[in-house]
Amino acid sequence: MSADLSINITLPAAAAGQRLDKALADALPQYSRERLKTLVQGGRLHGAAGVIWDPAVKVRGAEALVLTVPAPRPAGNVAQDIPLHIVHEDDDLLVVDKPAGLVVHPAAGNLDGTLVNALLHHCAGRLSGIGGVARPGIVHRIDKDTSGLLVVAKTDKAHEGLAAQFARHDVERCYAAVVAGVPAPPAGRIEGALARSSTNRQKMAIVPAGRGKHAVTHYRTVAAFSGAAQVECRLETGRTHQIRVHMASIGHALVGDATYGRTPGRLAPLLAALGFARQALHAATLGFAHPVSGAKLRFESGLPADMRALIDGLAGMRS
Question: Does position 17 have pLDDT exceeding 80, yes or no?
Answer without folding.
Answer: yes
